[in-house]
Amino acid sequence: MNDTTRNDTLAPISYEAEPYRIKAVEPIKRLTVEQRKGAIEQAGYNPVLLKSEDVYLDFFTDSGTGAMSDRQWAALMMGDEAYAGSRNFYRLENTVRRYYGYRHVVPAHQGRGAENIMSKMLIKQGDFVPGNMYFPSTRLHQELAGGTFVDIIVDEAHDAQAPGLFKGNVDIAKLSALIERVGAERIPYISLGATVNMAGGQPISMANMRAVRTLAQQHGIRVVLDACRSVENAYFVQQREEGYASKSIAEILLEMCSLTDACTMSGKKDALVNIGGWLALNEASLYEQASNLVLVYEGLHTYGGMAGRDMEAMAVGIEESVQQEHIQARVKQVEYFGHRLAACGVPVILPVGGHAVYLDAKRFLDHVPLEEFPAQRLAVELYLASGIRSVERGTLSAGRNVTTGEPNRPTLELVRLAIPRRVYTQSHFDFAVEAIASVHRRRKELRGLRLTHEPKFLRFFQARFELL
């Protein structure tokens, strides 16, 4: 952790009123206990496989689940659905250049489409891709391209109870050791995640990004940013890192991106849309390659799998995402939820991240062995008890070693409660706190799960279980 950080960010959180008013509503219903039992059994005790109509509060993901603004809904009517050269692409391209700073933009249907193209362009068989903790789809694309992911995040990130305001930082010593061991020519790029998802939504500091950039330039290695929640990371830099309190979110975001060579982006997070993403680059030669590959896997280089109207709504969303009122309210809402749970004695990852609250299943269900998937079992119980849908981020998500076939053993065993943007109110979070606290009080009653169906890739999406 950088010693220039401020330490005043963990004060008690009060709820701040949302900087918007509700113009349209969507009804939700809460099933009975018996109905929920039937639904989760039919889903193979995997909340991912539940029908959304059977979920009361959906904290499965913040990806594509947010509410669009009136300006974004109006933007949908401005869609130019020409197959080639849509004016909405050029509006999106200019907006990405303005706020993210990259020279070239290739649209994709969502973030993993951009990851696929990036991996196919840069990774060769036998390469090593260092990153500040893996994300399942990112690592899978790297592995399918012939690479091996190497975790270079600071040790604190693997400790649910460790303090630290920037637990998403890269351990520079680990990165240096990897370069020395395998050689810079076998490292196509350094993969940097903003507000590291699998670590509990923990941010990376600007000082650390600068150190990574300096080391990478010394060895001629590219730096690629997973920018899907970089606005949230910029907010944490503004609030926690010395020298940034007076800078705007837009200024910080631009500085972050200037320390990298390219980015993959899922616009379904920070950019406040339900679908879409992009690959952004500075090198003209890579842009030419990406423009060619996007034809094969996504669509023409001026739409990349998106409708024109979606690109227009995304451009508006990017502009709204950097507004101080928006991002502050978004992060404070998550902090309120997390701090209320912690006050009830529920074990959560602290500091609370920017997009989700993470339950520490190792402490929550300390009597359930990892072989019985405690985080998955906890996610099942949250649904049974209250209709809340969450997602496992632990042993199941970690998958298997591509060489040995043995299960990967992450140090963290978490349940993620991801918060959709501009969707839920304080009453929803207060209900969720009471429901989760009640499960915590009777946690010793719970037993684990047995895996009955295991897909080859990204198994947490479609795996099935039975109760032990």
UniProtKB/TrEMBL annotation:
Substrates-to-products reaction catalysed: L-tyrosine + H2O = phenol + pyruvate + NH4(+)
Cofactor (UniProt): pyridoxal 5'-phosphate
GO molecular function, one term: tyrosine phenol-lyase activity
Enzymatic class: lyase
Matches recorded under Gene3D superfamilies: Aspartate Aminotransferase, domain 1 (3.90.1150.10), Type I PLP-dependent aspartate aminotransferase-like (Major domain) (3.40.640.10)
The entry's keywords: Lyase, Pyridoxal phosphate
Enzyme Commission number(s) of this protein: 4.1.99.2
SUPFAM superfamilies to which the protein is assigned, alphabetical: PLP-dependent transferases
Domain Aromatic amino acid beta-eliminating lyase/threonine aldolase: 58-433
NCBIfam families reported for this sequence: PRK13238.1 (NF009709), tyr_phenol_ly (TIGR02618)
Protein family membership: Belongs to the beta-eliminating lyase family.
Protein name per its UniProtKB record: Tyrosine phenol-lyase
Source organism phylogeny: Bacteria, Pseudomonadati, Myxococcota, Myxococcia, Myxococcales
